[in-house]
Automatic annotation (TrEMBL):
<feature type="compositionally biased region" description="Polar residues">
    <location>
        <begin position="143"/>
        <end position="161"/>
    </location>
</feature>
<dbReference type="InterPro" id="IPR021858">
    <property type="entry name" value="Fun_TF"/>
</dbReference>
<dbReference type="Pfam" id="PF11951">
    <property type="entry name" value="Fungal_trans_2"/>
</dbReference>
<dbReference type="Pfam" id="PF00172">
    <property type="entry name" value="Zn_clus"/>
</dbReference>
<feature type="compositionally biased region" description="Polar residues">
    <location>
        <begin position="75"/>
        <end position="91"/>
    </location>
</feature>
<feature type="domain" description="Zn(2)-C6 fungal-type">
    <location>
        <begin position="15"/>
        <end position="45"/>
    </location>
</feature>
<dbReference type="InterPro" id="IPR036864">
    <property type="entry name" value="Zn2-C6_fun-type_DNA-bd_sf"/>
</dbReference>
<feature type="compositionally biased region" description="Low complexity">
    <location>
        <begin position="264"/>
        <end position="278"/>
    </location>
</feature>
<feature type="region of interest" description="Disordered">
    <location>
        <begin position="133"/>
        <end position="167"/>
    </location>
</feature>
<dbReference type="GO" id="GO:0000981">
    <property type="term" value="F:DNA-binding transcription factor activity, RNA polymerase II-specific"/>
</dbReference>
<dbReference type="GO" id="GO:0000976">
    <property type="term" value="F:transcription cis-regulatory region binding"/>
</dbReference>
<feature type="region of interest" description="Disordered">
    <location>
        <begin position="71"/>
        <end position="91"/>
    </location>
</feature>
<protein>
    <recommendedName>
        <fullName>Zn(2)-C6 fungal-type domain-containing protein</fullName>
    </recommendedName>
</protein>
<feature type="region of interest" description="Disordered">
    <location>
        <begin position="253"/>
        <end position="288"/>
    </location>
</feature>
<dbReference type="GO" id="GO:0005634">
    <property type="term" value="C:nucleus"/>
</dbReference>
<keyword id="KW-0539">Nucleus</keyword>
<dbReference type="GO" id="GO:0045944">
    <property type="term" value="P:positive regulation of transcription by RNA polymerase II"/>
</dbReference>
């Protein structure tokens, strides 16, 4: 059976009905668009509907969470479906707000195919945007049809008696296979040989990008295990190379701005590939920005066919690839190519993990690592968008039962709940102020419970210093403990800055004292960060931005901006507008 492509109609989501039917680009001119005027056709538009984009991200995030909550409550076969608190012996310290279960939801049929179609839609839209800016010159030469699944046979149902499915004839053969004979037919039988260029990006990933993802994973799965999976899986390999090339391009772009003051958007991946004087894309453009885009589209081409294998949809490889794709979009957050793609792809990674029952306490180490890496990205995206985090999973282990590394990831979870609290103004605008105060107090108590139970490895290494800076260097070891302390203060600041108060002047002074203590700790830890520590610098940027919003003294503001600038340089963090936004907050 031939499955119709879900990507075939992706080019027709906007514009007048006539252009959508003809499958041509529409400028949406009214009362008559340019295309209809040129061809003397009747120009008609669809009637307005309820697809307004205002605050869509906020409510889509809430809906996804509630869908998963409803599914979990119906299944009843998972500890996380019934566990309602961070500490099972202290339900009064729950970090849940108690408001979510009252929201109406609709159950959606979500699968890896929907995730891929989301990726293909965004990729095709980006190609079209590049083409639209070509002004008649030869355009970006990439066949959009290769991203479509329309030539792919549908996978056979995987019921209890079924052990075979169709191969796509472009991959292996048209014959049926037995899963017992070929457990992973979508992998190569031998390690993939890398070209010198690919090897350069591959090593960059293992040395720079992998450690960023592995900050809270002492098993270093993204640095040590995922690259070896990629050497047998071309899709994951292309995704790794895309992420490495994208991050490398951020460093080159930053240096270029320093060298010649050129506009930061000139060489971003959101612009068409560099062209010759004739306007034609260079045939052998080897720049990291160009190669990142090429690798990314090759990843999507691989997915368009390999998702047909039911075993692939449940594999380590698809989990790792999903995180690589969302990381790629995170690194591309300054580019206009995203248009919310990172948000959408984070949701896609959420769906993939839900389909595999993946969470932060999965027995499998890589699955845990993927979940925590995804949650870290979702925390920042949700914080910047003012929406709740997507996760609905709740930890089963008690604080007292966690080892030092598990305590670090527990703080990531609590931080996600604090960011969710900050979004309550949008998700629950009618919530009683007393409920919000109580909810904030529960979160602050959860933070203090965590801080109180920390072992000695979470204490800073002390040293004498003669520095005259406002923020003395504070060094923690190991790095994941330092990162957890930064997220602790990030979360605390988020709650304090968003919790209403009726306590008067004394309560205000106490709150400012707490924020000032967090400010000095966050900036002190950041000051201890060195050039070769991009993983810590990533966390430092986020913590500095959150805590820095409460700074009032001009001297501290100036020093904080200097520290933030250095962290941005070390991490290559895609932070368009962060500095300007901080300055704007200080002026209010």
């Amino acid at each position: 059976r031939i499955r119709p492509s879900r990507a075939r109609g992706l080019r027709t989501s906007t514009g007048c009905l006539t252009c959508r039917k003809r499958r041509v680009k529409c400028d949406e001119g009214k009362p008559r668009c340019v295309q209809c005027s040129k061809s003397d056709r009747d120009c008609r538009y669809a009637q307005p509907n309820d697809s307004d984009q205002v605050d869509r991200d906020v409510f889509e995030a809430a809906e996804l969470r509630e869908i998963a909550v409803r599914e979990a409550s119906c299944s009843g076969d998972s500890p996380s479906a019934t566990q309602g608190t961070v500490d099972t012996e202290n339900p009064q310290h729950s970090v849940e707000g108690g408001y979510a279960d009252t929201l109406p939801v609709s159950l959606l049929n979500i699968s890896p195919f929907e995730w891929y179609d989301l990726l293909a839609q965004d990729a095709i839209s980006q190609i079209q945007r590049w083409n639209d800016t070509s002004n008649g010159e030869p355009r970006w030469n990439f066949d959009e049809s290769t991203l479509s699944r329309r030539q792919s046979p549908a996978p056979i149902s995987t019921d209890a008696g079924s052990h075979s499915h169709h191969r796509h004839n472009d991959i292996l053969s048209t014959s049926l296979i037995d899963h017992g004979l070929a457990e992973k037919p979508w992998n190569t039988t031998e390690s993939i040989e890398l070209s010198p260029e690919d090897l350069g990006f591959f090593r960059y990933y293992t040395e720079i990008v992998g450690p960023i993802l592995d900050l809270f994973d002492q098993g270093r799965h993204f640095t040590n295990m995922v690259p070896h999976l990629a050497l047998r899986n071309s899709g994951l390999l292309k995704a790794i190379l895309a992420v490495a090339a994208k991050h490398m391009s951020l460093g080159l772009k930053a240096r270029q701005r320093q060298d010649d003051g050129r506009n930061s958007s000139e060489n971003s991946s959101s612009s068409p590939p560099e062209a010759t004087s004739s306007g034609r894309p260079q045939e052998r453009d080897q720049s990291p920005a160009h190669m990142a885009t090429q690798y990314y589209y090759e990843t999507l081409q691989y997915l368009s066919q390999t998702l047909l294998y039911p075993s692939y949809a449940k594999s380590h490889e698809i989990l790792a690839t999903a995180i690589m794709i969302s990381t790629y979009e995170m690194f591309d957050a300054d580019g206009t190519s995203t248009s919310g793609n990172w948000e959408r792809h984070l949701r896609g990674a959420f769906w993939i993990q839900r389909s595999q029952d993946n969470d932060g306490e999965s027995i499998d180490g890589l699955r845990r690592a993927v979940w925590w890496a995804w949650l870290r990205q979702d925390i920042w995206a949700a914080f910047r968008a003012g929406r709740p985090t997507l996760t609905i999973w709740r930890p089963w282990k008690r604080l007292e039962d966690l080892d030092s590394d598990e305590l670090a990831t527990r703080m990531v979870y609590i931080c996600a709940k604090c960011v969710e609290f900050a979004a309550l103004d949008k998700t629950s605008p009618d919530q009683d102020i007393r409920q919000r105060i109580e909810h904030g107090n529960k979160l602050l108590q959860a933070l203090e419970d965590w801080n109180r139970i920390l072992p000695s490895s979470y204490r800073p290494v002390t040293s004498a210093t003669g520095s005259q800076t406002k923020f003395q260097s504070i060094w923690f070891h190991p790095p994941n403990h330092a990162g957890a302390i930064q997220m602790y203060h990030f979360a605390k600041a988020v709650v304090l800055l968003n919790q209403p108060t009726t306590g008067g002047l004394n309560a205000y002074r106490q709150r400012q004292k707490c924020l000032n203590e967090s400010l000095h700790m966050v900036c002190g830890i950041a000051n201890a960060c060195r050039e070769g520590e991009p993983a810590m610098a990533f966390v430092n940027v986020q913590a500095i931005f959150a805590v820095g919003q409460c700074v009032q003294m001009p001297e501290k503001q100036a020093e904080l901006l200097e520290i933030l600038g250095r962290m941005l340089e070390i991490s290559k963090f895609p932070a368009s507008g962060l500095v300007e936004e901080l300055k704007s907050v200080w002026k209010e």
